[in-house]
Write a structure and sequence with these properties.
Number of domains of chain B: 3
Structural class of chain A: mainly alpha
Strand order of the largest sheet of chain A: 1-2
Number of strands of chain B: 22
CATH topology of the largest domain in chain B: Rossmann fold
Oligomer: heterodimer
Number of domains of chain A: 1
CATH superfamily of the largest domain in chain B: P-loop containing nucleotide triphosphate hydrolases
CATH class of the largest domain in chain B: Alpha Beta
Bound molecules: adenosine-5'-triphosphate, magnesium ion
Largest interface: A-B, 27 and 32 residues
Structural class of chain B: alpha/beta
Number of strands of chain A: 2
Strand order of the largest sheet of chain B: 6-7-8-3-9-10
Chain lengths: ~300, ~500
């Protein structure tokens, strides 16, 4: 029983984890991207469509990352070159994503593909209770966990990461240090949006695997909130995403067991719990000091003065 | 003969129709320290920002070693080996000192080799005799320490042209001296140094040449030997009338503020104030001398209610207000000129007009019922701008776009406009040009006539001796004793400042 719940937790949390990691990278560059929900849908559909037509899961993943990345890049360009309003542009991206996938995805509804298979890791998967639920997952789950550590490493231990954080904290300081502020912002939006797309593709290529209209069901919004509550830290994002996944899993169990509680209320639980728990976690941690990138959401103009 | 490394020809730069630089011409040679002198808002920082690629000029040419160059970005400037310390720091507050310094080091690998680089950075800090924990985020440093991190960022880069925009504004005189030894060394290595300061003594001792900028235009370049303080002041100041400070003789009898054995600790748990006692009389200007970092900031913060004391008493008009509820009333009678003008003193995105009424926007003076009265706010702004000759570019400009000195003037104008009971001023003339500094002294003296009591915290002994009625000296959070400005000598004060009784 525990084993099944852990397994379901990880599977339900993974798509949010990807999206949260993506948003962390984007926000580290100082850009807020509220288009995550839309990007996840774009990723889910393009991944599904590509796999459906080519039969290759690998190509599906690649196309999800690239197409969502490019869609996100439009947001990036609006926020840098055109000094647009990041909130408006992000919301537009979400609405665009929902709309276009509903239209273009009509033919994919009801189609089936062969989704990602579980890969059993020898020995580790034999550990009692947790072994089979953690070490017998599909490749995208493993990748997402590896990414948590890779992104943390890149952000804190490499020149690229230092430069990216500097851009998000104080673009003036970055600029006078010779860092190309716009390039970093664009790369971050591209990569981050690509990850959000991958989060969507996880749903349509591994979790269900099907294409359902609006299948991300608000996970993109949870990801955006998670970034804040995780204080822009990838490791805490992992915790947050799995927490959400855990409540989803339990909630599904309850439904399956046929409780009298309305299914609608049960479906709300993961969202409510995640936010409440993370708010509490943040209150304890912050104490007057915020780890939010200082220039988050601001337009950078070299000739302005800070 | 050394060669002209940098030539500026007819540079013009305007912001929304306001001309900040107008046909500026300047030649900088190798191996010289060239000072740019001018009033607040004369366009010094603007010109320097053009040289470092932050601002694009409207017209004009820049030549480096005789070839015309187009500096399109700060990166270009770095490639031409132009480095700059900006008047308002270009530091990343939330990252460590170590990482801030990495930003100006040449890193040859993608992965940061922490062990190697940390020992290198520590070595650099040792060379500059700086005792800073390199893991500390920059926002926790004192302003003086932040200034040093900024300076080091410049000095570890291999620049040929070094621009220092008011680097000494927040340094102690000793630290400034120390900096000058580095600058002189760089000069002997044939680097060109552009230096900006409002402190005339420094300008006199350090400069090989001085170029005067007035209302965005170059007035004149003078060589060493051709200038003295008097002449420079005359050339740069636009309104010729020279203020003569008048201070009436006064007898002080009524004690307005009494601080008894105050103890305050900082975030690190070290004592900022230890058993600190002080008395202030009504209508008195009490100067507080001391090297920055000896508890001055904590004193100001306790007095203005920003910090809580651990123990001790603050008594205002015979009433103990240390923990009492009457505190807020007392605080409303206190004016505060903070040390850090950009983060504490202003609402950066609001206009000058709005910033001038931040303290009393809800008073009848500026409201009709509960609406703000635009007309009266404008009128008030017009008066203050005129009085303090605040130069603000175009109308309605957000305060953050003003020059450093003019931001300082906005704060002073606002704080002194309401006839406060007590003024707590931390380095009030920092960054002000000589004329404006004089004017601020005059205003403080005028308010003294009206009964305002002032605690004037400063490092500038000349300033303290000039306007104080009494001088107290602070050392390691203690009051070392009082001196009379009529009889005290600078040596005497200096000794007390270093803890010798
Ligand atoms: N980015 C900007 N946008 C709008 N106006 C600006 C900008 N930068 C400078 N100005 C205006 O140009 C004028 C000159 O400013 P500058 O900072 O060059 O003066 P400064 O000589 O350095 O004065 P200070 O001694 O006070 O530092 C000011 O009136 C300022 O408001
Ligand atoms: Mg300036």
């Amino acid at each position: 029983m525990i084993s099944i719940i852990i397994d379901a937790t990880i599977r339900a949390g993974t798509s949010i984890l990807y999206a949260t990691l993506g948003e962390i990278i984007i926000e580290r560059s100082g850009i807020i991207n509220l288009g995550i929900e839309g990007l996840m849908l774009i990723g889910a559909l393009s991944g599904f469509y590509t796999t459906y037509t080519t039969g290759s899961l690998f190509l599906g993943v690649i196309s999800a990352v690239l197409i969502a990345g490019i869609a996100g890049l439009i947001h990036g360009i609006l926020c840098t070159y055109f000094k647009g309003n990041q909130i408006v542009s992000g919301l537009a991206l979400t609405m665009f994503g929902i709309g276009i996938t509903a239209v273009l995805g009509k033919k994919m509804v009801g189609q089936t593909i062969e989704g990602f298979k579980r890969i059993e890791i020898p020995f580790l998967s034999k550990i009692p209770v947790i072994g089979n639920s953690i070490f017998n997952q599909d490749i995208l789950v493993y990748l997402s966990i590896v990414l948590v550590f890779v992104i943390t490493f890149v952000l804190y231990k490499t020149v690229w990461g230092l430069n990216l954080r500097t851009v998000g904290e104080n673009p003036y300081a970055a600029d006078v240090a010779g860092i190309n502020v716009t390039a970093y912002k664009l790369w971050a939006t591209f990569i981050g949006s690509g990850l959000a797309g991958l989060g969507g593709a996880y749903l349509s290529l591994a979790y269900t695997p099907l294409w359902i209209e609006n299948m991300s069901a608000g996970r993109g919004w949870i990801a955006v909130a998670l970034v804040i509550f995780a204080s822009w830290s990838c490791k805490r994002a992992l915790f947050g995403a799995y927490f959400f996944g855990g409540i989803s899993a339990i909630q599904l169990r309850l439904q399956a067991m046929g409780t009298t509680i309305s299914a609608h209320i049960l479906q709300m639980l993961p969202y409510i719990f995640t936010i409440v728990v993370l708010i509490i976690a943040t209150i304890k941690l912050e104490k007057g000091y915020s780890s939010q990138p200082e220039s988050l959401g601001l337009v950078y103009d070299r000739e302005d003065r800070k | 003969m050394s060669s002209c490394i940098l030539k500026i020809e007819n540079i013009t730069k305007s912001f929304a129709g306001f001309i900040a630089n107008k046909n500026v011409n300047l030649e900088i040679f190798e191996g010289e320290i060239h000072t740019i002198l001018g009033e607040n808002g004369a366009g010094k920082s603007t010109l320097m920002n053009i040289l470092t690629g932050l601002y694009r000029p409207d017209s004009g040419n820049i030549y480096i070693n005789g070839t015309r160059v187009n500096i399109k970005s700060p990166k270009d400037a770095l490639n031409y080996k132009i480095g700059m310390v900006h008047q308002h720091f270009m530091l990343v507050n939330n990252i460590s000192v170590f990482e801030n310094l990495l930003l100006s080091m040449k890193l040859d690998s993608f992965v940061i080799n922490e062990r190697k680089l940390k020992s290198k950075v520590k070595e650099i800090l040792r060379e500059f005799e700086l005792d800073i924990d390199i893991e500390m985020p920059v926002w926790k440093l004192s302003i003086g320490q932040q200034q040093w991190v900024e300076l080091i960022k410049l000095l570890i880069r291999d620049s040929k042209i070094l621009i220092l925009d008011e680097p000494t504004a927040v340094l102690t005189p000793q630290e400034s001296e120390f900096l000058f030894t580095f600058l002189t060394k760089l000069k002997s290595q044939n680097k060109a140094i552009i230096f900006i300061s409002h402190k005339m003594k420094e300008v006199m001792t350090l400069s090989d040449k001085v170029t005067i900028l007035k209302k965005g235009e170059t007035v004149k370049t003078l060589n060493r030997g051709e200038f003295d303080e008097q002449l420079l002041a005359e050339l740069m100041i636009s309104n010729k009338e020279h203020l003569k400070l008048e201070k009436s003789a006064k007898v002080f009898s009524k004690q307005i503020l009494k601080i008894k054995n105050l103890n305050v600790k900082n975030d690190k748990g070290l004592s900022d104030l230890s058993d600190f006692s002080l008395e202030l009389f009504e209508g008195e200007i009490l100067g507080i001398a001391g090297i920055t970092g000896n508890g001055q900031k904590a004193l100001a913060e306790v007095l203005t209610g920003l910090k809580k004391p651990l123990s001790g008493q603050i008594i205002v008009n015979d009433q103990d207000i240390t923990y009492s509820t009457s505190k807020s009333k007392y605080i409303s009678g206190i004016a505060h000129i903070p040390e850090d003008r950009k983060t504490m003193g202003i609402a950066p995105d609001l206009s000058v007009d709005e910033n001038l009424i931040l303290k009393n926007y809800s008073s009848d003076k500026f409201t009709n019922f509960f609406f703000l009265n635009k007309e009266k706010i404008k009128q008030n702004a017009r008066e203050q701008i005129e009085k303090y000759s605040i130069k603000m570019g175009y109308d309605g400009i957000p305060v953050r776009l003003l020059s450093g000195g003019n931001i300082q003037k906005v704060i002073i104008a606002r704080e002194l406009s309401e006839n406060p009971l007590i003024l707590v001023a931390l380095y009030p003339t920092r960054g002000l040009d000589v004329g404006s500094a004089e004017y601020v002294h005059q205003v403080i003296l005028d308010s003294r006539e009206k009964g305002m009591s002032t605690i004037l915290i400063s490092e500038d002994l000349d300033e303290l001796l000039k306007i104080s009625d009494r001088i107290a000296v602070m050392f390691r959070g203690k009051n070392m004793g009082y001196l009379s400005p009529e009889s005290a000598t600078k040596t005497e004060i200096g000794l007390l400042m270093s803890g010798k009784k």
